[in-house]
Amino acid sequence: MKENRAYIILISLIVALGGFLMGFDASVISGVVKFIEPEFNLSKIELGWAVSSLTLTATLAMMIAGPLSDKYGRKRLLSVAAILYAISAIASAMAPSFVFLVVARMLGGFGVGASLIIAPMYIAETAPAKLRGTMVSFNQLNIVIGISAAFFTNYLILKWGQSDASWAHSLKLDQHNWRWMLGLEALPALIYFIALFAVPRSPRWLVMKGKETEAFKTMIRAAGEEAAKKDFIEIKESLQASKEKKKARLRDIFSPALRTVLTIGIVLAILQQITGINSVFFYAPMIFEQSGIGTDAAFSQAIYVGLINLVFTLVAIALIDKFGRKPLLTIGMIGITLSMFLLSYGFGSATYTLNEEAIAQLQMEPHQEALDGMLGKTFDNDTDFKSALVSAMGQDNFIENKGELLKASIELNASLILLGILAFVASFAVSIGPVMWVMFSELFPNAVRAIAISFVGFINSVISFGVQLIFPWELEVLGSSVTFLIYGMFAAAGLIFILIKVPETKGKSLEELEQILTK
Prior knowledge:
Oligomer: single chain
CATH architecture of the largest domain: Up-down Bundle
Distance between the termini: 45 Å
CATH topology of the largest domain: Growth Hormone, Chain: A
Radius of gyration: 25 Å
Number of domains: 4
Shape: globular
Mean pLDDT: 84
CATH class of the largest domain: Mainly Alpha
Strand order of the largest sheet: 2-1-3
Order of helices and strands: HHHHHHHHHHHHHHHHHEHHEHHEHHHHH
Strand content: under 5%
CATH superfamily of the largest domain: MFS general substrate transporter like domains
């Protein structure tokens, strides 16, 4: 059995590389936004499009990936996803224009959506029951590792580009840092594509297609002959029952009996995104730069975001079946609310003053005369300060020097901002981040579970897209303090809803929950 265990761990780890690529692809853009904004002269909404476009096509891919994998196979769809990741990475790195970059990112979004759906599906269909939970968790864990890796490689590329190393200059890491950040993903995508050749086709899919001999061989290798015989019979019986069962339709989930669970599902789907998690994951260096710590420190602190996310995701996995779903949601939402209010206070208490010494340190002689009118003036909020700078030196010059101008002028407790961001990420990762998906699988009755999860998952993706799209605009128009205050108010409302409406599902069978929650 040890040999079988090693085999199933190996193929699960290979397939879960799709999760790594998804996390990397989603978060690598966080280091890119600072550089593409001046290069392509982007408005704040265009900058939001560069980030959120991937989520748009990922949402579409999630809707079609399941049916396509039924037709062509799980393994083939994952191979296509690997190719899409690689093409998207190379095309994004070579993008000559903003539109080209968005199209390239959207192409990668199809890979993100496909791997998000197909990778855990494949693992669940291949792993023996004893190992299934752990093996499927590899995919979620790899997503988190991919996010951390993106923050880390972005920082490394930035530092190597600033170094005196001859190899860094020959690769033009200083001139094309953001292009290298995006293009680097092609390497793990290629490794993923090649490694998938070592992975067998899903035994469940093989049985669906009448290839029972090949399916049985795979099952024997994964679980041993005795367990394989039992599982093989169960798969055939399950497929036969599925053929005889009436197929659920979307309108079925809107029946009065499901009103409570559907409301809970929709609110959790919205709450997970509306509290700002993807603003942090996709714009972390931009947020840290607002605190005046400079570009290099902003990129280095983004690494902490990835590490905290990884650590507390592991904590959630360890605690979810011990403490229960509702306690984790409650504790996490309290943490999210307090963190956002802390960030709002931290940015709200900042002041901005330019003096002669600061301007001299910036070596901004071309803009010296334009900035003379701002010398000694103190601004109480970032929006007024930025507007004054744009009026004085022009939009393009401000964007190019924004990080250093903020660093030279701001009076703010940067440690408070770092604490607020890390506490928010920790609170999210230990609660609504992973717990939402667990509750989705438990809340809805068997007959409509698949279509209900697809529906609330679609809502979750749409809200994620909207949050990513408007975040740069929010920072510019509303300011950092108001933006985080809004997130905190959503979190506070969500906490009240969880306390009043969300049930505890720990320790109850799906059938018990169906009787309790549906009327």
